[in-house]
Write a structure and sequence with these properties.
The complex is a heterodimer of chains A (151) and B (179). Chain A is mostly helical. Chain A has a domain of 53 residues. In chain A, 81% of the residues lie in helices and 0% in strands. The longest helix of chain A has 52 residues. By secondary structure, chain B is mainly α. Chain B folds into two domains: 80 residues, RNA polymerase sigma factor, region 2, helix turn helix motif (Rna Polymerase Sigma Factor, Chain: A, Orthogonal Bundle), CATH 1.10.1740.10; 73 residues, Winged helix-like DNA-binding domain superfamily/Winged helix DNA-binding domain (Arc Repressor Mutant, subunit A, Orthogonal Bundle), CATH 1.10.10.10. In chain B, α10 crosses α11. The chains are: A mainly alpha (151), B mainly alpha (179).
């Protein structure tokens, strides 16, 4: 029997198989699930099933939120910068006038010699560790969890 | 969604439950998983009952939704390399599950030997490993072509053809007995 004949034979015989019947437990299960879903408040259901008015209102609120965030971001940044500057000024004013430039210079030298060269490496290491964790987690999920679920 | 029309929805479920369950059990090979999938399908149908109930495409929508849910289930809960590998399944359903689910009006019209052979063929189909059964069912029952199956499963065309051929070869003995 060649491949084409086998395909035709399989097609004919498989299509002749009677349709499997649903078990008697399916209908009660479905109706119970539907009742449970219908008894939930509208806001606890999927968004696309919300009443139309609430869908429109929530979409509008989201647009307002995003627009507001975009518009207010520069102002928030400026306010944060101002707050940091005032804290810095207060800190500097507590250090005696003679020692302030020395402390600032020491801190700057310390930053530039010891910390600044390491920042890039630290960022790279953090990103690599994050990626390694993600890969390991995914592999673990496939190998252990999904196989356990099959048993 | 017509929450106040439970009888209408119940009639809808009664009408289509065999089709949805039949598609699910042939794709998933497990009665318990097929029942879960069918419940998910009908819950989705209920959520958009107004659109689905009166539509002439309701059966098609249910079939497509069932197929998508089953394929998602297979790819999510069974590791891909087992799905598309030569490993044999260890979670095959018991023969009793099959006998419970396969009672068709057609069976009454057939003689016992023919019915037994068909039961055996159905059981053998469900016992095929996922990577052979799923494309075979999509080809012969869902009427998808090879390319559509490859797209649906995210596999190569050659892989799909090979798996379907091996699936048919595995069933060949039972098919030949029936001719």
């Amino acid at each position: 029997m060649n491949e084409h004949e086998l395909e035709r034979l399989a097609d004919r015989e498989l299509r002749r198989l009677p349709a499997p019947r649903a078990p008697h437990t399916l209908l009660p299960r479905v109706m119970a699930a539907v009742q449970e879903w219908a008894s939930r408040p509208w806001y606890a259901r999927a968004w696309f099933t919300w009443p139309l008015g609430w869908q429109v209102a929530s979409a509008a609120a989201l647009v307002v939120l995003v627009t507001g965030a975009v518009l207010l971001a520069p102002r928030a940044e400026a306010a944060a910068a101002g707050a940091i500057a005032s804290v810095q000024a207060r800190f500097v004013s507590t250090v005696p006038d003679v020692e302030a430039p020395v402390a600032a210079t020491s801190a700057r030298i310390l930053w530039r010699t010891l910390l600044e060269p390491l920042v890039n490496y630290a960022v790279v290491i953090i990103v690599l560790m994050f990626l390694a964790c993600a890969v390991f987690g995914t592999a673990l999920n496939h190998v252990v969890i999904e196989r356990a679920e099959q048993r | 969604m017509q929450v106040n029309a439970p009888h209408e929805f119940e009639a809808f479920v009664r009408r289509y439950q065999d089709m949805v369950y039949g598609t699910a059990i042939r794709l998933l090979g497990s009665p318990a998983e097929a029942e879960d999938a069918a419940q998910t399908v009908f819950l989705k149908a209920f959520q958009r009952f107004d659109e689905v109930v009166g539509s002439p495409a309701a059966a098609g929508w249910l079939k497509t939704t069932t197929r998508n849910i089953c394929l998602n289930h297979l790819s999510r809960y069974r590791s891909r390399w087992q799905f598309f590998s030569e490993l044999t399944r260890t979670d095959r359903p018991e023969a009793g599950d099959y006998a419970d689910s396969l009672v068709s009006p057609l069976s009454h019209a057939l003689d016992l030997e023919q019915a037994e052979l068909r039961e055996e063929l159905e059981r053998a189909l469900r016992a095929l490993p996922d990577h052979q059964r799923v494309p075979l069912v999509l080809f012969h029952f869902e009427e998808l072509n090879y390319q559509q199956i490859a797209d649906a499963l995210g596999a190569s065309l050659g892989k799909v053809k090979t798996d379907i051929h091996r699936g048919r070869e595995a069933l060949k003995g039972l098919l030949a007995d029936r001719t």
